[in-house]
Design brief:
NudC_fam, CS_dom, 10 strands, NudC domain containing protein 2, alpha+beta, Immunoglobulin-like, p23_NUDCD2
Length: about 160
Amino acid sequence: MSAHFEERSGVVPCKTPWGSWYQTMEEVFIEVNVPHGTSGKEVKCHLGSRDIELHVKGEEVFKGKLFDTTMSDEATWTLEDKCLIRIILMKTNREAGNCWASLLEGEYCANAWVQDQMQRKLTLERFQRENPGFDFSGAEISGNFAGGGPDFSSLQK
């Protein structure tokens, strides 16, 4: 379901010196620009449940403790067109309120505007899941969307 929502609504990337990262309720996507012609043998990538490390051609791109935990056995990386590494991490906590403020603890932080846009996006994604007959991909929200938006669970149906 997230893939279709993302296709219709776009992504909110957090730019970094090496590329960008963005997130959905379920996943964190990392896109790393590498020199054209890079081969898979020149990429060393460790994807742990709480840590990540990427080296390209012997140079460290990033290394550190992730903002939150992931399911390491479901993490993947690919080298696309010999110039882009795409890493996909599956979040352990898949709630709309689990909006990562940074990729690594204290590093690659989303600025206040990007963080706000990411949280809005996750809240709309949550609304989409809760109301599959509606299309929230182009919706705008204002007000209380921090922490996953308003809680309607106590309302009777």
